[in-house]
Amino acid sequence: MSLKLWKIISVILVFLVSSLFHFIYVWMPNFFTSLIFPVNESIWEHNKIIIGAFLVWAIIEKIYYKKRKNTLWAGFISSLVCAVLVMLIFTPVFFLILKTKDNIIVTFIIFLIAIGISEILNYRILQKEYNPKLEKLAIIGFGLVIILNALLTYYPIHTGIFYDYNKLVYGIKK
């Protein structure tokens, strides 16, 4: 399978995996799932599904490509770019246009655009020469981002992106 076709498939599968991850805490609410999956509908908590979906996809790509590609590094960089794009695009739309009301179609469109752009970057990174140091750095990076998101679930910053406008709470209910 060509790398371009693989990247088109990856956009769809990252979107589907992230959609699944959105509900894990709802289905299994416990301390462990609260660290990895979103516990509320705040903009920030959705970074967990982005990071998690890209991590899972990077591992799948690592298995598929063996050691020939920088899949973990590509996944890590792509996940950060996707998270930043979602925050930069969705935040002003959510506050200024939607007036803090959820619109699933707008959310999905923004999310798919961000994943698509991130996968284009991912494609470019996968074309570079394999570097095991970058792969190790990606593992550390994913770990640090997961820890940061987990900490901010329990100790959120009291700003709009950390606030769940449905439950009217910051972070996880205690």
Throw out a few tags for this protein.
174 residues; mainly alpha; two-stranded antiparallel ribbon; 7 helices
Description:
The chain is mainly α and 174 residues long. The chain has one domain. The protein has 7 helices and 2 strands; from the N terminus they run αααααααββ. A two-stranded antiparallel sheet has the order 1-2. The radius of gyration is 16 Å and the shape is globular. The mean pLDDT is 94.
Question: What's the arrangement of secondary structure elements?
Answer:
Layout: H1 3-21, H2 24-27, H3 31-36, H4 47-65, H5 71-97, H6 104-126, H7 132-154, E1 163-164, E2 169-170
Antiparallel strand pairs: 1-2
How far do the termini sit from each other? 48 Å
Kindly state the percentage of residues in helix.
55-70%
Q: What does the main sheet amount to?
A: 2 strands, antiparallel
Strand order of the largest sheet: 1-2
Number of helices: 7
Whole-number radius of gyration?
Answer: 16 Å
* Overall morphology: globular
Could you tell me the strand content as a percent range? under 5%
Number of beta strands: 2
